[in-house]
Design goal:
- There is one protein chain.
- This protein is 24% helix and 25% strand.
- It contains 14 helices and 27 strands.
- The strands form 7 sheets. A 9-stranded mixed beta sheet has the order 4-7-3-2-1-8-9-13-12, with helices on both faces. The protein has a 4-stranded antiparallel beta sheet with strand order 23-24-26-25. It has a 3-stranded antiparallel beta sheet with strand order 5-19-20.
- The longest helix is centred in the first third of the chain and has 18 residues.
Length: 549
């Protein structure tokens, strides 16, 4: 077993989502580097709150068995702990126990002796009602006060835990082989290992944030990733030799799913990345330093939901390669379903994994990291959807409540640009490198200039858009063109300029960051883009004056 020194701790993350599968040969390459722990997330609110209400797992049981058995083989070979968070996707006690049963089944079949710790995160509804009456729950975000009837309507409540329960499990369960937790903040398992070993919480949380998505921070995006945390920095490298981390890819991933590019709120405080430094150590490895952590009152987010009617899952897309003909409606284009996916739980592991993973893959030639396809729910009943309601205790865990309700309110339409709309005439601009000579420019789509144009959830009420450039020169040129403005974003997305939450050019990461309010809560009635992964398309068609080829 690898023992953490005072100078370095090594973490192996084989995938950004348990159940989606990962290359076993690359995982074994990671084990050869003698990590001190294997950490992997199993859950997300990305697909909406209905899984919590229905008691469904994100992937099939067969898919989880397949992945977990590989993890346990690695644990038995190295004798290092495996930390699994957000069991089953929603992290309920029910699914923590389901994972326990899977692990026991595998251990029995393979004649392994394993010490397992379980972390439960369900919260008693009576406790929430008591805290509400005592005035210790307040809205967290653009939501009305919590209604006691929403608590009564809920079937289950789960807290989003931080690092402390993992640290406690490691401390109180000497020689623990596997930890399975309920709903957790995604970076928590990685951060817990590092914080327990005495490393800087800022670096621990930042490395956890980068690693929890696996090798999504690599080029091209992949699965297995390795992290080395030291006293004043950490390093990240994918395990697939065909992939590499670059300063641009790692810095860009810091923006992913976040309202603000540098301030990342989480359990116990805010991660401040405004002074971070990204360095290319080798062709495939990046070093990060300068992260800071500002403690605040502790947050443990919770989700509350009552069940909805079972409906077919529909996959939808608005990427030009997927759309056939025009489409209208609210945010996004209200795309037509590409197919329907069975939800009866009888899909084989390979079918389940492939169908779900497809929603996170980019179309050929696409640059949207979040994927060109998304999920939407096919229900029509007014009480069939969840309405996310984040709230917080004063000095107590934060409660983000998902309750039933009809969130019908006016949607914000996307202003669509045709390929020729907004086109500017060819013109000439001074070329600093050529003295008084003039350089010919042509209106060029942003998709042909930027390295990444993507959109994603930033919680249930916000959509965040990232435009990341290949280098500082391209970033400066687009910024100086004056084309991308708040007013343009307001026109494209039909959002008042004063309602835009974040807008700015950020030199540290050569990126534009834009965050908008969602017209409907994630998973609400009429909401058609669960992951908010389709909202980048209008940005791709923006025309910028660019040097003629």
């Amino acid at each position: 077993m690898a023992v953490a020194s005072n100078d370095e701790i090594r973490i192996l993350t084989p995938s950004g989502m348990l159940g989606y599968g990962f290359p076993v040969d690359h995982f074994k390459m990671g084990l050869a580097l003698k990590p001190h722990a294997i950490t992997i997330d199993s859950g997300s609110t990305d697909s909406g709150p209905q899984k919590l209400g229905l008691g469904e797992m994100t992937c099939s049981r067969e898919a989880y068995v397949k992945d977990i058995e590989v993890l346990l083989e690695g644990q038995q070979a190295t004798k290092i702990p495996v930390l699994i968070s957000s069991a089953g996707g929603d992290g309920t006690n029910l699914h923590v126990d389901a994972f326990r049963d899977i692990i026991a089944e595998i251990a029995g079949r393979r004649s392994w002796r394993l010490k397992l710790a379980r972390i439960y995160s369900d919260i008693d509804k009576g406790h929430i009602s008591k805290e509400l009456k005592a005035g210790r729950i307040e809205p967290l975000g653009p939501v009305p006060p919590l209604d006691p009837r929403e608590i009564e309507a809920a079937t289950v409540v789960v807290a989003q835990i931080g690092a402390e329960p993992f640290v406690k499990a490691l401390d109180e369960s000497e020689g623990v082989d596997v930890i399975v937790s309920g709903r957790a903040y995604d970076p928590s398992p990685t951060a817990a290992m590092a914080i327990r070993a005495g490393f800087d919480p800022a670096l621990a949380w930042h490395m956890g944030k980068i690693m929890e998505c696996g090798a999504l921070c690599a080029e091209p995006v992949g699965r297995n990733v390795m992290g080395w945390l030291r006293r004043d920095h950490f390093e990240i490298e994918p395990l697939n030799p065909a992939e590499r981390c670059t300063t641009a890819s790692v810095a860009a991933h810091t923006l992913y799913e976040k309202t603000h590019p540098f301030l990342l709120a989480g359990p116990g405080g805010t991660l401040d990345l405004s002074n971070c430094k990204y360095e290319q150590v080798t062709e495939r490895r990046v070093r990060v330093s300068g992260s800071r952590f500002e403690p605040s009152k502790h947050y443990a987010r919770s989700d509350l939901h009552r069940p909805d009617r079972r409906n077919p899952r529909q996959s939808a897309g608005r990427h030009p390669r997927l759309l056939q003909g025009g489409a209208g409606g609210d945010l996004p284009h209200h795309p037509a379903p590409l197919w329907q996916e069975r939800r009866d739980g009888r899909a084989r592991a390979g079918e389940d994994t492939g169908a779900r993973a497809l929603h996170h893959r980019r179309g050929r030639g696409g640059n949207a990291v979040a994927g060109d396809r998304d999920l939407r729910q096919g229900a029509h009943r007014a009480d069939a959807f969840a309405l996310s309601r984040p709230h917080s205790h004063r000095g107590q865990p934060c409660l983000a409540v998902h309750a039933a309700g009809n969130p019908a309110r006016p949607g914000l339409r996307v202003q669509r640009l045709s390929p020729d709309e907004g086109r500017q005439p060819d013109r000439t601009v001074p070329d600093p490198g050529r003295g008084d000579r003039l350089m010919q420019t042509v209106p060029t789509p942003l998709r042909d200039i930027a390295k990444v144009v993507r959109s994603k959830n930033a919680g249930p009420f916000e959509i965040t858009l990232d435009i990341v450039f290949k280098n500082r020169a391209d970033f400066d040129a687009v910024k100086q063109s004056g084309v991308i403005t708040k007013e343009l974003v307001s026109e494209l997305y039909n959002v008042p300029t004063q309602a835009i939450i974040t807008f700015g050019f950020f030199e540290l990461v050569n990126a534009v960051k834009i965050t908008l309010p969602r017209p409907r809560p994630q998973g609400g009635i009429g909401e058609t883009d669960m992951h908010a992964a389709q909202q980048h398309v209008p940005l791709q068609e923006i025309r910028v004056p660019w040097p003629a080829p």
